[in-house]
Design a protein that fits this description.
The protein is 82% helix and 0% strand. It is mainly α. The chain has one domain.
Length: 114
């Protein structure tokens, strides 16, 4: 594979990763907000509980796709295992997906193109 095709693959994988990092992080924040409302603020509302449950289920499925995109970028960039773990944690630690996504996007953009 030539360098242009490899660069194109990385750009495509990075774009998919960035979108899924934002979507996954957003759903995680919504689930976190529902949990805070219920257990910290003491709001007992069956509608909020139901909506939070559905958002959590959707987040779980999106998280699986997010993990696949993390692995794809990780393989293409030939990074160490720690980077993959950090990327994966972005889907389960609130706000982390946004931070990691920005750092990875900046790092890949700063790399010289062949």
């Amino acid at each position: 594979m030539n360098d242009t095709a490899a660069d194109s693959k990385v750009r495509g994988a990075l774009a998919r990763y960035r979108v899924l990092a934002i979507v996954t992080g957003t759903f995680l924040l919504l689930v976190t907000a529902g949990v805070i409302l219920k257990y910290v603020a003491g709001v007992e509302n069956p509608t909020i509980d139901s909506v939070t449950s559905w958002i959590a289920i959707v987040h779980g499925w999106i998280f699986i796709v997010y993990l696949v995109t993390c692995v794809h970028v990780w393989i293409l960039k030939k990074w160490g295992l720690g980077r993959l773990v950090t990327m994966a944690l972005g889907g389960i630690v609130p706000f982390l997906s946004f931070v990691v996504e920005r750092r990875i996007a900046r790092e890949v953009a700063a790399e010289p193109t062949p």
